[in-house]
């Protein structure tokens, strides 16, 4: 497994360098067009500074930014004991050194993501809707998938590469909008009329770079993102030993039409499935960060074991191609403990919405009182009185 992680790190580093080179090349080209006398050096320096600053911010504060953008709240085991129990199980199964911090997002749409700069500084965030809809096997499958991202060191790369892509797109859009609104065309006509064909050629090259560099950087980012989702599925199944748990969870996640209000284009690639209903069932095009969920489900349900060899065989069968999604070092590992038995049945569908509401209330510090008459009283945190009456039987409860 360590060789697999090392291979993952090398590929991540190479991709990060390639995107950095694209950023520097774009900055130098734009600078050269605006000031040929500077030979593009000042633009390259600015691009490097942007790269360093944004990388440092994403490295040290990336997880906090993602959690804040998602409106996630850190919770204790009292809010959802089963969730903590499962995360602890998967921490032990994966051999991670530290148990990730656990957050809940106040959303009815089922989804989850992991973030952080290393296994020692990682977080797992799940929505209230996910906790309400999934049974134990399904929830374990999702948590195992997210723990696999942490184990494979995906979380750091995805944050850094996402920031890099954002920087490239930002520089490109600033330049192109500047060309549109500040008379770049006039400059071209002036230089061309005075015989400055060299300046015209430079402008065309810069325009091409401004359009093509973000596209190629995006395609690299999206391609590696899709591959990492496959690897997280394969690794997660090794941890949970139950492919159907993750397959069934993905089925439920893709089946909901509820949109995530807190998700956006920046945070979307971090989730186990695209958080927008239009993207959940869509086939993965070149600009998609996730493989089609239906395909992932078919692969998981085609597995006859829980090892990498079993996942690779199922992947090749479903995709109809012989290319390896699992690195060679991973395929050399033959340990496969087999598929375990299921834990329990699905939760009562009628209670799903009520359970999601209760979880969100607990996250927001509501106080719950179980009355002897069977009524569950939910007291909001802003309630200041020292007692409350049960609306069903009239019993007075001291707070």
Can you describe this structure?
By secondary structure, the chain is an alpha+beta fold. The chain has two domains: 1-356, no CATH class; 365-398, no CATH class. 59% of the residues lie in helices and 9% in strands. It has 14 helices and eight strands. The chain has helices at 2-34, 41-69, 81-94, 128-133, 136-151, 154-181, 184-193, 197-240, 243-255, 277-280, 293-301, 308-319, 328-331, 352-363, and strands at residues 72-74, 101-105, 112-118, 121-127, 367-370, 376-379, 387-389, 396-398. Strands 1-2-4-3 form a four-stranded mixed sheet, sandwiched between helices. It has a two-stranded antiparallel ribbon with strand order 5-6. Strand 3 (112-118) and strand 4 (121-127) form a beta hairpin. Helix 1 (2-34) runs parallel beside helix 6 and helix 2 (41-69) packs across helix 6. 40% of the residues are buried.
Write the SSE topology.
Elements (H helix, E strand, L loop, with lengths): L1 H33 L6 H29 L2 E3 L6 H14 L6 E5 L6 E7 L2 E7 H6 L2 H16 L2 H28 L2 H10 L3 H44 L2 H13 L21 H4 L12 H9 L6 H12 L8 H4 L20 H12 L3 E4 L5 E4 L7 E3 L6 E3 L1
Parallel strand pairs: 2-4
Antiparallel strand pairs: 1-2, 3-4, 5-6, 7-8
Helix pairs in contact: 1-2, 1-6, 1-8, 2-6, 3-5, 5-8, 5-9, 6-8, 7-8, 9-11, 11-12
Summarize the structure.
The chain is of the alpha+beta class.
Main sheet: strands, sense, barrel:
4 strands, mixed
Strand % is 5-15%
Head-to-tail CA distance between termini: 52 Å
Q: How many strand segments?
A: 8
Shape: globular
What's the average pLDDT?
Answer: 81
Instruction: Provide the structure class.
Output: alpha+beta
Q: Could you say how many structural domains there are in total?
A: 2
Rg on CA atoms, Å: 25 Å
